[in-house]
Amino acid sequence: MRKWYKYFLDPDGNGKKLLGIDESYEEHSMAMGGYDVSEAYNSKSDFFNKYFFGYHLGRFQCYDEFIRTHVNKEDNILSIASGRSANELYLIEKGYNNITCSDLDISNNMYLATVNLFPQFKFYRLNILESPAPETYDSILNLSMIYLFDKNKLRTFFQNVSQSLKSGGKLVLDSAGSPDNYMSYLIHDCLLKWESVYLLRAKRFITTQKLEGIVVKHHGFRFTDDDIISVANEFGFKLHNKKAYCFLIEFKRSYLLNTLIETIKTAKNIFNIVGKQVPYVRMFYFEKI
Ligand SMILES: C[S@@+](CC[C@H](N)C(=O)[O-])C[C@H]1O[C@@H](n2cnc3c(N)ncnc32)[C@H](O)[C@@H]1O
To answer: How many domains does the chain have?
Structure first.
């Protein structure tokens, strides 16, 4: 396990500022760009075009493919950390009629706009680090959340998820970030840091004559597949399948690599192959035994 940091410039600061990991629903919401209610809530097609198709370089469509391969339409399903619930609402449209969404909280605006568009939307508040769900389910989905947890919290997560599943129940989990390995270290802890702290800062200094501050944000944690699988095993989960997706996302965070990928087709093809080392989405299908 390795800590995952992000680096930003702060036009109003001058030194180095350290920010801790997001804890509250408001902080998570901000990290997701604010769970705003836009005009896309006017129709289902607008909603899915804005918040599902192509969103974050196709991340949600990868989730959807894996979920629909492993979860039955008839299952009683709980989604933990649903956020805007774009995947879950898409599943409802595809005939998964028994899905309940949950998260630390939901804004009144987003809840009302979602129910208005999708009357089948069911939601309750659940902090999976504090307790299991109030009932047991056939299947649980958890997408893009465990990067927020260190190993102890990951243990609590698997323990509470296990208690929220029926025997033989399924957990479909996304690793929520690339694995802890040399390549992700080089991208996050060397290249992206270097680009923000030196390159972008120098570029801004040339235009504004001001040396901006640096913000180092503790974004989360990176785990290997084995880290995740061994903690899951501790709590009685058996791995049935896993699949990696989204091989370009980590490279596209870099200004330099993104320029290469967007301008030279061969570079894009090469990064798509090399990127198998740093898939942003790693899906796991576990069964509670
Ligand atoms: C990166 S967002 C992912 C949202 C959505 N699943 C997606 O893929 O876009 C992480 C979500 O995890 C939720 N979260 C963080 N800690 C949690 C916890 N302990 N229990 C339940 N949800 C949590 C946050 O409120 C946030 O909505």
So the answer is: 1
